[in-house]
Amino acid sequence: MKKIDLSKFDVSALLVPYVEWSIQQGVALERASISKFNELGGRINQINKELKSRSGDQRGALAPLLLHPNAQVRFNAVQNLIWILPIEARQAIQVIADSGVFPLPGHAGMYLSMHDGEAARILRK
Predict the structure, then answer these.
(1) What is the pTM of this model?
(2) Cβ distance 104 to 72 under 8 Å?
(3) Quick one: CATH architecture of 6-124?
(4) What angle separates helix 71-81 from helix 104-116, to the nearest 10 degrees?
(5) pLDDT for position 61
(6) 3-state SS track over the chain
(7) Cα(92)–Cα(120) distance, rounded to whole angstroms?
């Protein structure tokens, strides 16, 4: 995976590849292409790290993506916003988990189990 200098992008410009790569990641998940899924996840994580590193933590710019029509985009946004917008992110991932359009609801359900479960409570202490 070629590293992109994300520092040259403004916040709104970072959302474009975030959405594009998230959609591609959803396709990779449906095709069970784990290596592609992981590669795209790494790219998406680069954007999250870049947003977090900016003055005032700019991850909140991902909030509109909680309403994106693509479930993988919403899922990725949830993972990056769960500690910033816990109520909105929790609601968004619950919708994905309840949708029944697999395989993503399985991932969302596991995420909720980890987030809401005993392990998470221990780690939050």
Answers:
(1) 0.84
(2) yes
(3) Alpha Horseshoe (1.25)
(4) 20
(5) 98
(6) CCCCCHHHCCHHHHHHHHHHHHHHHHHHHHCCCHHHHHHHHHHHHHHHHHHHHCCCCHHHHHHHHHHCCCHHHHHHHHHHHCCCCHHHHHHHHHHHHHHCCCCHHHHHHHHHHHHHCHHHHHHHC
(7) 19
Please write the tens of the pLDDT for every residue from 11-34: 999 999 999 999 999 999 999 999
| Torsion-angle region of 9 (φ positive above 0: left; ψ -120 to 50: alpha; else: beta) | beta
pLDDT digits (tens, 9 = 90+) for 68-109: 999 999 999 999 999 899 999 999 999 988 888 777 767 777
> Are the C-beta atoms of residues 88 and 63 closer than 8 Å to each other?
yes
Q: Would you kindly state where each structural domain of the chain is located, as residue ranges?
A: 6-124
Measured in degrees and rounded to the nearest 5, phi and psi for residue 92 equal: -65, -40
Confidence grade of residue 122 (pLDDT, cut at 50, 70, 90): low
User: Which residue has tokens 């990779």?
Assistant: 28
